[in-house]
Amino acid sequence: MNRFGYSLSKARVIDYDANNHAVAEYIAEKEPSFRLCIACGGCAATCTTGNFTEFSLREINILIHRGENRKPGSDIRKCMLCGKCILVCPRGVNTRNVVITAREAFKKFGINAL
Ligand code: SF4
Ligand code: SF4
């Protein structure tokens, strides 16, 4: 905190080239609709789990696409596979299968951090 009563956030750099894209590639191969996500947030808005916990499939999709797998590797366990998000996705992403496939990928690549 400085004398102005606020402080600057730490620099947040996304090093896309240095990140690990193995999870994103695995999911896209097994569930190609994963590539169609435009991060609109419809899934997160309707998500049963998201209504009660800090959980957002939109955030998970964005982070996995970036190759930032640490938080998604932990958060993805909260999804209860109810499938409501599939009904609202404007891009026809099979979100439920994305979650199932992402769990497989995190297990395969040893990512379940946090
Ligand atoms: S509703 Fe579909 S397009 Fe929108 S963020 Fe969710 S998965 Fe992506
Ligand atoms: S399947 Fe998972 S991400 Fe989709 S609405 Fe249900 S709890 Fe949320």
Provide a quick synopsis of the model.
With 114 residues, the chain is mostly helical. The protein has one domain: Alpha-helical ferredoxin (Fumarate Reductase Iron-sulfur Protein, Chain B, domain 2). Helices cover 47% and strands 0% of the residues.
* Global outline: globular
Main sheet properties: none
State the CATH topology: Fumarate Reductase Iron-sulfur Protein, Chain B, domain 2
Give the N-to-C terminal Cα separation.
28 Å
Mind explaining what this structure looks like?
With 114 residues, the protein is an all-alpha fold. 47% of the residues lie in helices and 0% in strands. It is built from seven helices and no strands. The structure holds iron/sulfur cluster (2 copies). The site of one iron/sulfur cluster has 15 residues, from α3, α6 and α7.
Secondary structure layout:
Blueprint: H1 22-30, H2 42-46, H3 48-52, H4 57-66, H5 70-75, H6 84-88, H7 95-108
Helix pairs in contact: 1-7
This protein binds iron/sulfur cluster (SF4) (2 copies).
Quick tags:
single chain; globular; mainly alpha; Fumarate Reductase Iron-sulfur Protein, Chain B, domain 2; 7 helices; binds iron/sulfur cluster; 114 residues
